[in-house]
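Annex B. Sample input.
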Amino acid sequence: MSSDRDKLPIKMLNDRLLVRVGRDDGERRSNGGILIPATAQMAKRLVWAEVVAVGPNVRAAEAEDRVLFSPDDRYEVEVQGEDLIMLRERDIHAVAAERIEASTGLYL
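Annex B, continued. Sample output.
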């Protein structure tokens, strides 16, 4: 049973980011073609996610950017039936976006 309160606009505060982890972060293949299940333990593997919303004090990322973060530094939240992750700006390790100059020589 959904009410109008479930559909209220959300404003992120301070240095918070709301991100969506892609479905491709489950099973993956190694370079040799071996299927690695999502349940396989990986030591401290960082995750890429798409930024959905940012607070007014976030300087390094914007909506629709991709950010790299540690799954240990997250809080999960459900917004309008979608599972999203709340992060602080200091918990992101890298930002990938079209607007960023290609000064590092690295590309996704």
